[in-house]
Amino acid sequence: MTAIGEASRRCVVWFGQPTERERISLADVGWATRIVDAEAGGGVGKRHGDIVVALADLRCGDAHRVQAIVKWMAEHPHLLWLTLLSPDAPVQTPQVECLVHASMDCFTAPLDLQRLIHVLRRMEGDYLPIAEARSEGIGIDGCSEAIGTLISSVRKYAPVDLPVLITGETGTGKEVAARALHGLSARAAHPFAAINCGALPPNLVQSELFGHERGAFTGANVRRIGHFETAAGGTVFLDEIGDLPLDAQTSLLRFLQEGTLERVGSSHSIKLDVRVLSATHIDLEKAVAQGRFREDLYYRLNVLRLRMPALRERESDVELLAQRFLDAFRVHHSTNARTFSRAARQAMRNFAWPGNIRELLNRVQRAAVVAEDVLISAADLDLVDAPLLQSMRFSLGSTRVTAERDAVITCLRESRFNVSECARRLRVSRVTIYRLCKKHQLALSELR
Ligand SMILES: Nc1ncnc2c1ncn2[C@@H]1O[C@H](COP(=O)(O)OP(=O)(O)OP(=O)(O)O)[C@@H](O)[C@H]1O
């Protein structure tokens, strides 16, 4: 890379050759120009806080150069791009199309410098650098501390052949975590079966999970292999485990204890090697206390535990995930939107995201469809009048909620996690303590 001028907070990384007039005009408005040879490789020399815009100048050079720029672009996904086309250059090649598609704006030579400066000013106003993700190729994207802790737990738990109970609100990525656990384990080459226990018809749960023999019940005309046998050697992920009927709980417990199962209508035990991961967004401790969930099964499933943080606890991940979802959307759909306006980013950070990552994904996809500008606005995300997390934080209501949560945690600790004792001290019923634990997402086993 050849450096022209001093490194600046605002810099156009120019893939090609700017004219002296172009360079000086940009310098006059505070933008340094750095010339980069894409074919020679190297980085942008970006420092923290720099605003860097890359410009693909296609006024000269051949197809190899365009290809090198496209490669460079793929290696630097967090840069914002502009493309400058030559009126004679073929626009129809896939490489040029790729550059045009990924750019925030396109110019045709001769370059309209006033328009370029206007576009740069606008990008400066709206562009906030998006942090790099930590996903490390396991599908759990994020750069927050909470996600760093989660990823290191996933790495620790993956190779250990024990059940993992994954807790968290709806849409927080419980299934994504289960897939990561499977993908990082020695079972990765074997099947991963995800089953939503809440979606199975209650009378068919046993047969769905463990299979049935021909004639086991009316309508069982042929032998059927269940999900467990299908996943032999791999992993079964039981989502909404709290919805599992009691008879199926008994069969699952037996499988976890003995590693064997029986198809419905058979007394023959089948030995099977399957790791069981489960997830719940309900309070299983409460279900145990109410007799809806077997306590012995609960302890078997809860050997290792992962808690998926709510999106509002991962404020710094919101923009990163939003950009990821937008980039993924653009691969298959044509949209003007390239990134998010400053106001949209602020609105996303301030929103409480009750539906978590799933809601973010849905809002971004909808915004990508309706956005008419390159920048998605808060209105496109339907977040203009949304209740603010900030105002929720400081409202009287939220102060009460926080105080209530703190009181329950403190009293539980002081009562050595004896719910009856805690209820006596707080002068409420045991049921109320369980209700409060659920309301504030307090898992007794985690607190202990
Ligand atoms: N860290 C992540 N990075 C990118 N996408 C994610 C991440 N976590 C979740 N998602 C996406 O969010 C959506 C919801 O994830 P998932 O189904 O795993 O959530 P869940 O907690 O299992 O939800 P539910 O409790 O409703 O079953 C999916 O589309 C998933 O691909």
Automatic annotation (TrEMBL):
Keywords: ATP-binding, DNA-binding, Nucleotide-binding, Transcription, Transcription regulation
Gene3D superfamilies membership: 1.10.8.60, Homeodomain-like, P-loop containing nucleotide triphosphate hydrolases
This protein's record includes keyword Disulfide bond: no
Domain of life: Bacteria
Gene Ontology terms: biological process: regulation of DNA-templated transcription
Residue ranges annotated for the Sigma-54 factor interaction domain, each copy included: 140-369
Pfam families noted in UniProt: AAA_lid_14, HTH_8, Sigma54_activat
GO molecular function: ATP binding; sequence-specific DNA binding
UniProt xrefs under SUPFAM superfamilies: Homeodomain-like, P-loop containing nucleoside triphosphate hydrolases
Keyword ATP-binding recorded: yes
Cross-referenced PANTHER family: TRANSCRIPTIONAL REGULATOR-RELATED, TRANSCRIPTIONAL REGULATORY PROTEIN
Name of the molecule in the record: Sigma-54-dependent Fis family transcriptional regulator
Native source species: Dyella tabacisoli
